[in-house]
Amino acid sequence: MNVMHAQSTMVRSANVSPCGQYLWSFSRTWDGRPRLLVVMFNPPTADHATDDPTILQLCAIASHNGFGGIVVVHGIPLCSRYLGDAIEMTRHAITGRKKDARMLQQNLEVIAAEVRRSGAVLIAWGALARKCPEWFEQVLDTIRSSLPDCATLYCVEKTATGYPMHPMAKGIKSVPKTAALQVW
């Protein structure tokens, strides 16, 4: 189901599964410049009509770096306020739960399609990916194999353990709204 919502000069859209449990992608567009594809861990509380702090931060970072919008996909598409549910989804898929495996495979296809359309990809799933490293290696492999020759793979920074930093990282290395994208 594709849903669009325009408020002031921001155009918002989301591609959600018919059951509402999976968010395949969503976008925010504010001008005609190219959009930045962002690959994160799992869906935020934002939807087709509402922004959350993470999305507002991503919009600021993208605009600061010369983009006119963002398209966001997630390594794990499950909509849940509990990160443990998303992590369990990857474990269930590995151990043979067919529905989870099917949804994750469908999600990889969405990621690959969005990457092929993109001129720039920001990976930003944060250190949480260490809880399901095999899955996020597969996500990164999908991104790399789908990346057009003219496209660039970015992060805002790396975590101490080498993961692409989440835009809302806290502590010693918080990410400013004016963060420059770094080549991954």
TrEMBL record:
<dbReference type="Pfam" id="PF07799">
    <property type="entry name" value="DUF1643"/>
</dbReference>
<dbReference type="InterPro" id="IPR012441">
    <property type="entry name" value="DUF1643"/>
</dbReference>
<protein>
    <submittedName>
        <fullName>DUF1643 domain-containing protein</fullName>
    </submittedName>
</protein>
